[in-house]
Amino acid sequence: MSLSLSPSLSAPAVSPTPNSVVLPVLTRPSVAVAVQNPLPLSVAVSPAASKADAIRTEAARSVAEWRSAREAVPAAAPAEDPSLRLDALFDGSFPTSREVLDRASSRGVPDSVLAHALADSRTPTDAASRLSALGVLGSKETALASRNEPEFRFLLTRLWRKTSSSIPAPFAVDTSFRVPALKVEKDGIVYLVHGVAHGKYGAPRRGAVLSTVRRALAAGHAVYSEENLPAYYGYKAGLETLDHAAASGAPARIVVAAPSFTRASLLLKRAIDWAVAPGSALAALAWAIASPATVFAWLLLPLAGVLSWVILSGGLPLMAWRRRILAEGARGEGLEDIADQYADEAEHFFVTKPDLEVLRGLELPQPLGATDDALSVRSRAIADAVAGDAAGTGAGTVHVVVGHLHAHEVAARLASGPRTPVPGSQIS
Questions:
Q1: Which SS3 state, helix, strand or coil, does residue 189 take?
Q2: Could you tell me if 179 and 212 are in contact, meaning their C-beta atoms sit under 8 angstroms apart?
Q3: How many other β-carbons are positioned within 10 Å of the β-carbon of residue 373?
Q4: Cα-only R_g, the chain
Q5: Distances (CA, A) of 323 to 288, 346, 351
Q6: Looking at CB atoms within 10 Å, which of 18, 102, 274, 339 has the fewest?
Q7: Could you give the 3-state DSSP secondary structure of residue 247?
Q8: DSSP secondary structure code for residue 75 in this structure
């Protein structure tokens, strides 16, 4: 159906279609003619004219609402480039982790975002770029990070220490053994990485280590130990990784545990260890009690006691004391993050029963923490050798006994496989 308007209206004939509405456009002359010659009532109230009025009214209402909304909500200010602001404050040095966290707080960046940025980074340069993208590092600070990586690692480690608890740990800690372990599942094999705190003297918590090894073997599990730990603690069970040569570029080898010892010689070694400490202290005490008038016995007693304490503790308290000295020296130089890191290491690294959950926050996450220093290289060599041998023997559950500073990197390497190391040095 079509509707034709009067010739006095300056508009074409309108043929309504389902998806279009054509509005008539009025001019001044046509209005005058229309007044002089009124349209018939049937034409003046035509459906097309009513539809046009409704559309005009709706459009006017929409425009009014839009203008009202624009007046109620002020236009957003252009985003500020955080790098420019931070570059203006750059004094030629790194910010402290406390300052970075303050920047993050001011920008509304939660700790979990910072932690994920570090956990996902492959290198310190990568970490610097991610932190810069979050607006907590300036471009000049990012450039300084690539030139001074060792110092920048302290900043990254302290940031990780303060934010790591905000995201889930990659590995569960199995506390069912006397020496707790990080649990890793890979290619159908369950790895339990036990971190022991061996020192330079004696064998601290020897009973706990021997209990863990015996229980694993009794369950029919495979046991691999870091080089020298079987002889150190006095057991000849399972296999041993010869990983020291890996620091020079050689691959680690798998051998029978304590290859240069027999079971009898290991028992003799353990007896001698006990005779020296605490045996010497007990002997001096017995002498002093038997001959209280003997001055030499009383002089020998404290010396024997100190010797026993050093050996039974593995010398760990002395190592912690040296770390505290380093911490005080760094604090005196105004190096806040370095001082805090050394103080935390003194408290948590050099202890006879390390806490694997605490250690997670004191060491950079993998792969960011992978470096080419001897400790890190050996960690990767241990993991690669164990994984290869376990896969070849068809082991289902594997226990890996290592020094606690190897534990997290060994676990990460077992979970992810080989990774190219980056230049740098471990903080510790």
A1: strand
A2: yes
A3: 17
A4: 38
A5: 36, 5, 12
A6: 18
A7: helix
A8: P
| Cβ 200 vs Cβ 155: under 8 Å | no
Other beta carbons within 10 Å of 149: 19
Identity at 149, one-letter amino acid code: E
Nearest to 191 by CA among 413, 406, 399: 399
- Residue type (1 letter), 392: G
Say if CB 208 and CB 314 are below 8 A apart.
Answer: no
> Tens digits of per-residue pLDDT, 227-281?
999 999 999 999 999 999 998 888 899 999 999 999 999 999 889 988 888 899 9
Q: At what angle do helices 316-332 and 295-312 cross, to 10 degrees?
A: 70
The answer to whether 345 and 334 are in contact (CB under 8 A) is no
> CA 98 from chain center: how many Å?
17
Q: Dump the DSSP string for 328-377.
A: HHHHHTT-HHHHHHHHHHHHHTSSSS--HHHHHHHSPPTTTT-BSSHHHH
Long-range contacts of 28-37 (CB under 8 A, 24+ apart): 33/8, 34/6, 34/8, 34/9, 37/6, 37/8
**Where exactly are the structural domains of the chain?**
90-166, 172-314+352-416
Q: Residues 6 or more apart from 381 whose CB is under 8 A from it?
A: 241, 243, 246, 251, 252
| CA–CA distance, 287 with 280 (Å, rounded to integer) | 11
Distance between CA atoms of residues 217 and 257, nearest Å: 13
For 122-154, the DSSP string reads SSHHHHHHHHHHTTSS-HHHHHHHHH-HHHHHH
The per-residue pLDDT for range 363-395, each reduced to its tens digit, is 999 999 998 889 999 999 999 999 999 999 999
Residue at token pair 């450039």: 143
Q: Which two tokens stand for residue 108?
A: 């509304």
Instruction: Please state, as a whole number, how many other Cβ atoms lie within 10 Å of the Cβ of residue 176.
Output: 8
Q: Which residues pair with 196 in a beta bridge?
A: 403
pLDDT tens per residue, range 181-225: 999 999 999 999 999 998 888 889 999 999 999 999 999 999 999
